[in-house]
Amino acid sequence: MSDLANDVPAIEMHKVCKAFGRKTVLLNLDLAIRSGETYAILGGSGSGKSVCLKHMNGLLRPDSGHVRIDGVDITHLSESALIDVRKSCGMLFQSGALFDSLSVFENVAYPLREHLKLSKAELAERVKECLAAVGLSSSQSLMPSELSGGMRKRVGLARVIALQPKTILYDEPTTGLDPGNSRRIGKLIRSLQERLRVTSVVVTHDLELCFAIADRIGLLKDGAMVSSGSVGEMRDSTHPVVRAFLRGDQDASLDEIESS
Ligand SMILES: Nc1ncnc2c1ncn2[C@@H]1O[C@H](COP(=O)(O)OP(=O)(O)OP(=O)(O)O)[C@@H](O)[C@H]1O
Ligand SMILES: [Mg+2]
Questions:
Q1: Which residues contact residue 98 at a Cβ distance below 8 angstroms, ignoring those fewer than 6 apart?
Q2: Closest protein CA for atom 19 of ligand 1
Q3: Of the candidates 16, 14, 192, 10, which has an alpha carbon nearest to the alpha carbon of residue 85?
């Protein structure tokens, strides 16, 4: 690959604005995520993290600005053209979003049946591989109601990786999990990135997870990334909003921070 090709971000948001009614959520947001990196988006509750993530696979469209995936502008793509984008860009929803009436096996098989024409044996093999990758080989006949929160997240992740995406978007992958399960999910995110070379974008409140898995971190506030850098740079940052966020004062405004 030429140097030029390496310079094209896997995901790029350029001056993205998004409002719902009178509420502006994203305001001239700029962001560039490199191919193969794990980028964590931090931000207070309601700061627009999920909205930002949903622009990356066309679930939401900007009011103005552009979203590019591997250099291709997806801002105005038709819904049918977006299907291919979503196939290569899996999203793990906060809830896991499992189908409660389908077994673990059928949940993971679902996108494969939708999008690929595999034989019965190939399908079973792929589902088995994906469940093994998340440590759930022996759970394929269970129903979602029989699973713990951590297991549900892992089945959701097995379903995401079934289509072998180039990019995985994670929305709060550890919320609601105990520390052991959170660490396990963190390790999984990291190992998928290393083994499959996926680009990962992780929206989280969980600073421990963020520092454990991210290559770079961006802090979202007032509709834009107020600061972005490597884990070391963010830890050592003197930026008042970053400092406030890291000490747990997630919703402090810049005015409050500067006057404190
Ligand atoms: N489809 C929608 N319609 C109207 N308002 C929306 C919609 N989606 C998000 N919002 C609003 O946009 C703002 C940002 O929401 P978002 O879900 O991105 O926050 P968040 O940073 O992910 O918060 P949390 O950490 O609580 O998940 C909120 O005020 C929310 O109410
Ligand atoms: Mg959210």
A1: 107, 144, 152, 155, 156, 159
A2: 46
A3: 10
223-244: pLDDT as tens digits:
999 999 999 999 999 999 889 8
- Ligand 1: residue of 13, 18, 20, 250 to mutate (most ligand atoms within 8 A of CB) is 20
Contacts of 176 (CB under 8 A, 6+ apart): 149
Taking the CA of residue 252 as centre, how many other CA atoms within 13 Å lie in the half-sphere pointing to its CB? 18
Burial of 109 per CB tally in 10 Å (0-12, 13-18, 19+): buried
CA distance 206 to 43: 10
For residues 90 and 167, the answer to whether their CB atoms sit within 8 Å is yes
Q: Domains of the chain, with CATH numbers? A: 3-259 (3.40.50.300)
Q: Is 179 in the pocket of ligand 1 (CB under 6 A)?
A: no
**In this predicted model, what pLDDT tens digit does every residue of 89-121 receive, in sequence order?**
999 987 668 999 999 999 999 999 988 888 999
Query: Mutate which of 42, 49, 95 to test ligand 1's pocket (most atoms within 8 Å of Cβ)?
Result: 49
Which strand (E) or helix (H) includes residue 206?
none
Cβ contact 124:137 at 8 Å: no
Phi and psi at 111, nearest 5°, equal -65, -25
> How far is CA 237 from its chain centroid?
24
Which residue's CA is the nearest one to ligand 1's atom 7? 20
pTM (2 d.p.) = 0.89
Residue type, 140: Q
> What is the distance of C-alpha 94 from the center of its chain?
10
Sign, CA torsion 95/49/172/179? negative
